[in-house]
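SAMPLE LOG
Freezer: B-3
Tube label: C17
Construct: single chain, 191 aa
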Amino acid sequence: MHLLPEYGLTLNHIKKDGFNIDKKIDILLSSDTPVGITKSMGIGLISFADALDELKPDLLLVLGDRFETLVAVNAALIAKIPVAHLHGGESTEGLIDEAIRHSITKMSHIHFVAADIYRNRVLHLGENPKNVHLVGPLALENINKFAPLPENDLEKLIGFKLKNFILITFHSETLSNKRNQVTNLLNALSE
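STRUCTURE (predicted):
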């Protein structure tokens, strides 16, 4: 997703932060339908296999629970490249992320978890306690550095005045009907 304009071309942010990009992985993300995602995973697996063979890393460090991460870890497993997983053991009820994250955990060798409850979950998956490290949530460091935009600057950025408004974020459950979820959200807001 970092390579695509529709997702903000965040590759530029990575470069701006001073990171060198050794390889761009080709994954077709033209559709977020189940068929589109599955096809993207197939293309991603091939692309990650080629990249890992070319780069020959000593370790693959991955974060979280996305399908792109799952295919990278699959390729590393077959290539016998150790995997270190950040944020394993967490839980997202009603989402495919849950199964993906736990799959990544089972294919990983070193685990960096954010809280005791997540450490315990990773241990219940059968992982070696010596390889499970409680490091805390990585986002805390960014929160400490975060400087919010002044209200006037934010209004200019988004193109409207921040008067009498409510901001709602919605992360749908991928394992249930989205239309019902949105209807429930709108009904709750109406009340």
